[in-house]
Amino acid sequence: MRLVLKEMIAALGLLAAALPAAAAPMKSIVVAEPVHGVGYLPLYVAVDKGYFAAEGLDVKILTVEGGSAHTNAVLTGQAFAFIGGPEHNAFAKLKGAELRSVVNVVDRGNVYYVAATGKGPKDKNYAAYVKGKVIAPGLFGGTPNSITRYLVGVWKLEPGKTVTLLETTTAGILAAVKTGQAQIAAVSEPMLTQGVKQGIWEEPFYNVPKEMGPYAYSTLNVRLDSIQKEPDTVRAFVRGVIKGLHETYAHPDEATAIAQKEFPTMPAEALKATLDRTFADELWSHDGMVSEASWTTAQKVVRGADILKADVPYNAIIDMQFVKETLASGK
Question: pLDDT below 70 — which residues of the chain?
Fold first, then answer.
């Protein structure tokens, strides 16, 4: 009897060893975005391609419109991460909260300056050209508006005196230039190509991605205590994002197909124009790094626009340990 029992136990042990191990449960996390836009395509690619799932993460993307709603979603624990400029971490820092950018997505300022058809500059003396004109830069607080205010300062001009800022909605920008209320606009795709096709404005005379270089425009940001208490989750998340960045550049046709699924109502021509310009200007980061130079530029913009009230050091709001670790491992 004892022999039979031992044989049964041994057989059960062999059977258990032959069965596949139970899959570890997926960890669900939410990423808050301020708008569902083509600029965040590498994030959507990472989800679609299963890069987060391969890291044991079930990533849900939640669109929360309105000011700092995406930041607040993370601060209140409703979301694990948010996508947006690291200046949001700086704003929070000055109020006593601790957020960190852990991986980059958009590494260039996604803003282009266009002039009403037939009224563009003849040379690159932008200060002389812009002086006395009306610019439609979007609403105050938005990055296009902040960049406009920064550049106006660089050109030694002053809003309300030597240049006028017509702060209106995205739809209002198109109407303002079309009716002659503004001669210059700060835009991005797909509205940029839409205006060109309608003969409202010309191709950009000032290309922020090329003119201003590295710019920490949209990073993925988490609470500091997430890094301290859940480093493995942050590490896995960063690896997934980096894979999404690599895949987007390596296989643009597949990335375009994913964009078509994400934005089914966007006209194919508009989507193509948006992606063509994005790839040409290399708006997305190639490796996920947020360089010190990119934060220096971003901080100059929000300080120049008087939105950020004090300088905030790079290391106080940006943590690249997981990106560096991932790049070093080659995974």
Answer: 1-24, 66-67, 331
